[in-house]
Every structure is written in structure tokens, then in C-alpha cells.
Specification:
Blueprint (H helix, E strand, L loop, with lengths): L7 H16 L2 E2 L12 H13 L10 E6 L4 H15 L6 E7 L8 E3 L4 E4 L2 E4 L2 H11 L5 H5 L2 H4 L2 H7 L4 E7 L4 H14 L5 E6 L4 E3 L1 H16 L3 H9 L8 H14 L2 E10 L10 E11 L14 H21 L18 E7 L2 E8 L6 H14 L15 E8 L3 E3 L11 E6 L2 E5 L1 H7 L3 H11 L12 E5 L1 E5 L7
Parallel strand pairs: 1-5, 2-8, 3-7, 3-8
Antiparallel strand pairs: 2-11, 4-7, 5-6, 9-11, 10-11, 12-13, 12-14, 14-19, 15-18, 16-17, 16-18
Length: 489
């Protein structure tokens, strides 16, 4: 890739970007100094101390959502911290915060799609691609007045900034709770919560200003309904005017989504009322913290939606750019994907061909990195680290064709008859030896199932019949896409 000189057009671009950032809405920290400390050092210290106090809790995995309160920190901060601390070790890039409206009356749901939020700890940006995706799935727009004064969203931000400093947010404010709004949001959440880098936060306080004994009794009944995912009952109680919780819209949406996913488990972490923070026993507010854990599907097969054509083209362009930049200056590209699905963690193989012949192929069965970063790494490795070939040169790169295979998770099988040639890839494993063949390899070579199994064993450095002699067999599927030949491009 050629390097353009920075001239007048470059100056115009910089000025345009600067103007865009300056024009971008920044919501100030409205409630700092009231609901939570406005001193950044004090604010960070208190949150870190709360996180440290939760180290005795048993570790949890695959948490996709939490339920937290949104009162002043003196009353509910330590309760909220317990839920955030359970997810702190996970890699979270986007937090969708769903809170009820307290300061602006409206019907429906508002999704803030393009802003920055100020707190004493600095700015936190709205994740515009994810916000647009949620708006597309639900049909809801931005109602600016719903976000200007809303504290249920704001008090969550410092927890997020301490736990995941680089994370972005999608602020969602629910107006008067309606059944159709809950259903729309739940349907969208079932798709969104498949992404392990997205955390959904549903925030609510429980009963308001009841005597302590009565409050504890009402809250215990509400918590039982939450634990059993009884979204419909909660919504009915709230719409009848029963004093159970203010955030019934966000919580019911989350619970309904969890019920639809069927592999979810909700864990109540703590209940506390405002007397613990010095509030009067005659007027109590209740607080609960909970986590929603989603287990991966037990059966094999494709459960993800296929990548769109635009997403495929984006990954192919990225792979070529990564190889080019690495060959030029040994640096990978600095890149932000346009689609949230390119942040998902998936196995990837990148295959290079030159004049119809294999020129390199390297990948990762599983990856701890987002998809786009895995593609960058696999593309560079295929070009320069496949020991079967000399490194690709910059001169020959224009004639190299790139193919990407995005893998589904491995599924262990015991019956080889389950293997479908052309659909399944194979992994053969015995001890420390492991071999992988992509689905397209069997088709390209005209192999039947038996030959495919034998070749996979040989790829693992095992005898061809090792699959009959204790070697483990795994299948996977792959979305395979390649650059168009030059004459078709």
C-alpha cells in the first residue's frame, strides 16, 4: 500500500474529523456528587474496594447479563459491585444498559445511538454500531429528553469504566412498561446475548418506601419471581400498580429473553435494603444483584447466523491489508470493524493460492481474540510462517488469492457415519498429536468419508487407522469465502 503525503486534503480531513468529534453530543455527569462521589480518586477507590471484597465469591463463566440497582452508592453501590465483579474477568467490549425512565415520561423505549457520556473518571462512548443494530432489531429510535437527566444509566458508568476501561455502552431507557415493548426487546436480546463480548445490564430498585418488614416480604416474593424467570407475572404486577420494582421493563425483557434461550441460569447474589446505608426503617428501598449465565449448546451444528456478504468482503479486504502492511513495515493494521459480529470469537483459517496452487495455510481452531483480529493474525502467519513454503513476497502478493474459513465450535463424535463430506471438517486428536482438515479439502480432492478420516490421521502424524484405535474425532463446519478471480472482479 502506498503512503500518501499529508497535504491540503489531509488537513481538510483532520479538520473535518475534529469538527465531527466536537459536534458529537457529550452528556455531562448530572448526578456526580449526589448519587456517587465526584472526586475521581475517591470514586475509583471505593469501586475497587468493593470489587476486592467479592474475591470470596465462587468464579462464574459465560455471564451474559446482570441485574443491578441504581440508587445512591451509599445505599446500593456495594450490591451492584457484586454483580459487576462476577463479570470483571470476562472480556467485555460493549455494555448494553437498560434502565427505567425517572425524569421524562414517555411510552416505548429510547436507544441512544451516538453520544459520549461524561463521568468523573472520563468519557465513555456509545457503541454506535451495536446501538444501530439494537435499534434495527427493535424499531426504537433515540428520544434525547429520555437520557438527559436519567440517573439509572449514569450510576452504572463508573463501574464499567473501572472494570473494562476500553468498553463502550448502549444506553437504553424504558418508558411506561408495555407488554409489546418487553417482547420486542426480549427478541432482540436473544440474538445479542450470543456474543460473549457484550454484557447486558438490567437495572432496577425493588419496592419503594415501605416499612422495612413489609418491604422485605414484598421483595422476597419479587426476587423469587426473578429467580424463576417469571417475566409475565412481574409485568402484570407492575402494570397493576403494585409496588414491586421501578425497572420492570428492563428486567422483564431480560428474563423473557433468558426463558427463550433455555440454556440460561439466573443466580441471586445479594439482597439488601436502604437501612444498611443509614436510611430510615419506616421508608425502605430494596436492592438486588443477580447474574444470568448462558451455557453453550450441548449439540453440534451451526447455531450462528452466516456472515453477510458485506462482512465477508470486509474480512477479505482486512486479510489482504494485513499481509501487505506486514510485508511493508512488519506492522499489522489499526482497524475498527463496522459490524459487531466481527467482534465475536471464532476459529479461523486463512488459505493462500498462487496460480491455482496452495501457497500457505494457517489458522486457529479456537481463538481468544475477536474474529477480525484472528483473521489479521492468521493471514500474516499464512503468508510468512507456513514452514512448507517460502514467505510470500510483496511482488507476488497481487497474484495471490485469499480464502477465509470461519469455523463453528468443535463437536466430538463417536460414530464416523455422522461425518458429511463437503459439510464437515475434521480434527483427529490422540495425546498431544492433532490434525485438522477443512471441509473444502475433501471436496477439492474427491475423497470419500474413509479417505477423509485416514488423511486427517496422517495430518496429525498418526497411522491412517488411528481413528479406529482410540483417537478422538471432532467435526466442525465452516463458512468459506474467497476473493473473486481478477477476471471476475
Amino acid at each position: 500500500m502506498s503512503k500518501a503525503k499529508f497535504g491540503f486534503s489531509g488537513l481538510i480531513l483532520v479538520l473535518s474529523l475534529t469538527s465531527l468529534l466536537m459536534a458529537q453530543t457529550t452528556r455531562p455527569a448530572v448526578w456526580a456528587g449526589q448519587f456517587y462521589p465526584d472526586n475521581p480518586l475517591q470514586l475509583r477507590q471505593i469501586i475497587e474496594e468493593w470489587f476486592a471484597a467479592t474475591l470470596s465469591l465462587p468464579p462464574a463463566k459465560n455471564i451474559r447479563a446482570i441485574i443491578v440497582p441504581h440508587a445512591g452508592y451509599i445505599y446500593s453501590g456495594s450490591v451492584a459491585a457484586k454483580a459487576y465483579a462476577q463479570v470483571k474477568s470476562q472480556s467485555i467490549s460493549t455494555v448494553i444498559i437498560m434502565g427505567p425512565a425517572h425524569h421524562y415520561a414517555f411510552r416505548g423505549v429510547s436507544i441512544d445511538q451516538d453520544a459520549r457520556y461524561q463521568t468523573p473518571l472520563g468519557l465513555i462512548e456509545v457503541d454506535s454500531p451495536w446501538a444501530a443494530k439494537l435499534a434495527q432489531l427493535t424499531g426504537y429510535k433515540t428520544i434525547p429528553q429520555a437520557h438527559k437527566q436519567e440517573h439509572s444509566i449514569e450510576v452504572q458508568l463508573p463501574f464499567i469504566q473501572v472494570a473494562w476501561p476500553q468498553a463502550k455502552i448502549v444506553p437504553v431507557v424504558f418508558g411506561y412498561p408495555r407488554h409489546k415493548d418487553v417482547q420486542k426487546m426480549a427478541k432482540a436480546l436473544t440474538k445479542i446475548m450470543a456474543n460473549p463480548q457484550v454484557l447486558v445490564v438490567a437495572t432496577t430498585d425493588l419496592s419503594h418506601y415501605l416499612p422495612q418488614a413489609k418491604a422485605n416480604q414484598v421483595d422476597a416474593q419479587t426476587i423469587k419471581l426473578i429467580e424463576n424467570l417469571q417475566a409475565e407475572t412481574l409485568l402484570q404486577k407492575a402494570t397493576r400498580g403494585e409496588n414491586i420494582m421501578c425497572g420492570v421493563g428492563p428486567v422483564s425483557s431480560l428474563l423473557l429473553a433468558a426463558k427463550q434461550l433455555k440454556t440460561s441460569r439466573l443466580h441471586i447474589l445479594e439482597y439488601r435494603d436502604s437501612t444498611a446505608g443509614g436510611g430510615p426503617a419506616s421508608q425502605v428501598v430494596g436492592y438486588v444483584a443477580a447474574t444470568l449465565e448462558i451455557s453453550p449448546p450441548s449439540s453440534g451444528g451451526k447455531t450462528e447466523e452466516a456472515l453477510t456478504e458485506q462482512e465477508k468482503k470486509e474480512l477479505l479486504r482486512l486479510a489482504r491489508e494485513a499481509i501487505t502492511l506486514f510485508l511493508q513495515n512488519k506492522n499489522p493494521p489499526h482497524y475498527t470493524p463496522s459490524s459487531p459480529r466481527l467482534l465475536e470469537k471464532k476459529g479461523v483459517f486463512v488459505t493462500l493460492h498462487h496460480n491455482g496452487r496452495l501457497r500457505g495455510c494457517i489458522g486457529f481452531i479456537e481463538s481468544s481474540l475477536p474474529l477480525y483480529q484472528t483473521v489479521i493474525q492468521a493471514a500474516i502467519y499464512a503468508a510468512v510462517k507456513d514452514v512448507r513454503f517460502n514467505p510470500v513476497s510483496l511482488d507476488e502478493l497481487p497474484d495471490v488469492e485469499i480464502e477465509i474459513s470461519v469455523l463453528t465450535p468443535l463437536t466430538k463424535i463417536t460414530n464416523p457415519a455422522q461425518i458429511q463430506v463437503g459439510r464437515h471438517g475434521l480434527v483427529i486428536e490422540k495425546g498431544r498429536q492433532k490434525g485438522l482438515l477443512l471441509p473444502q479439502v475433501a471436496l477439492e480432492n474427491g475423497w470419500d468419508r474413509l479417505t477423509f478420516l485416514r488423511r486427517a490421521c496422517l495430518k496429525a502424524g498418526l497411522p491412517p487407522n488411528a481413528w479406529r484405535q482410540g483417537a478422538k474425532i471432532f467435526t466442525f463446519e465452516a463458512q468459506v469465502f474467497a476473493e473473486k478471480p481478477k477476471e471476475e472482479a
